[in-house]
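Researcher: Can you fold this with zinc ion in place?
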Amino acid sequence: MTAPYLLAASTWRTVESTPYTVAVLPWGATEAHNYHLPYATDTIQSEAIAAAAARLAWERGAKVVVLPAVPFGVNTGQLDIKLCLNMNPATQAALLADLAHSLDVQGVHKLVILNGHGGNDFRQMIRELQPRTRVLLSAINWYKVVDPSRVFTDLGDHAGELETSVMMHLAPALVSPLDEAGRGVERRSKLTGVREGWAWTPRRWTQVSADTGIGDPALATPAKGAEFARLVSEKIADFLVELDAADADDLYDR
Ligand SMILES: [Zn+2]
């Protein structure tokens, strides 16, 4: 029996006999990541972080299972970039409801979405779905679990130093030489509120970045990626262990 915490690699014999409590759903996107990272970057990262965290949690006795990753994210701001494949929030909500229903009737009553794409936002979907399911729903953006400034110098948020380092660690064969990458320069908004971060409008990607990246990957290294992935995976493992043990009807201090 190998890795019973990875559903895609498990057999019915293993699954039938394992009392899983927590399902982890990696959720990525299919989109351009500058000139040096693959379209599956967000999916590869969320799947790998989920697997690493689940392994650590499993070793501590938590009955977690990582589901196959969803490879499509919200990319309405990138529809004019070739083969950025958008899945609308309403479609994601329908998919989430179907998966939660499967888990509900099969007795797995805790679900964690492990999100790897900035355009995905599951909180409103969860607010809508939670009253209709017995599955306790939660969501984590893996790239926000640990303060990136602990490891990285350039804090751009798309195909920059963070994502490039993590991909160099996880999937080095899929990372092109950094001298092929653009610098990921982000054009600033003319709107003061947007620049200062207290007003928001979705970024029109082709107008914000020339190379589809936001953040300079130049200082990325596999060692930084390994360090960040380890810190993140350990914290998520702690969450999974707590969630495994938690009573969904008694989640708050008295
Ligand atoms: Zn990404």
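Model: Folded with zinc ion in place. DSSP finds eight helices and four strands in the chain.
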